[in-house]
Amino acid sequence: MEPAVTVIDNIRELSPIDPDKLGHTTALKSPDVRVVVLAFPAGFVLKEHAAPKTLLMQALDGRMTVTVGDDATTLVPGGLIRMDSLVRHQVEAHEDSRLMLTLIG
After folding, report:
1. % of the chain at pLDDT higher than 70
2. Whose C-alpha in 8, 22, 30, 45 is 20 to 30 A from the C-alpha of 70?
3. Total structural domains in the chain?
4. Residue 73 belongs to what domain range?
């Protein structure tokens, strides 16, 4: 049985930024939600792709551009983007950045 409450004291510490590649850490996994932190070195572009579930994107640090079709949004700490499942998007890090993804459903 899963615990009723899960606490992560510092989610950024789970995902150090490697200057040579994209980092990926699953911070939380349960039947109805998964939280993943992507750690981007400056200049890294995660090419167009889609998530299989509803997606929340939150910048933990840094500055990124999230592009959906012709629409580009700058994402910085404090910002939040929600996407339906299967929406194709690209993420570009303009500086060392960590992106928290919450996949729902």
Report:
1. 99
2. 22
3. 1
4. 11-104
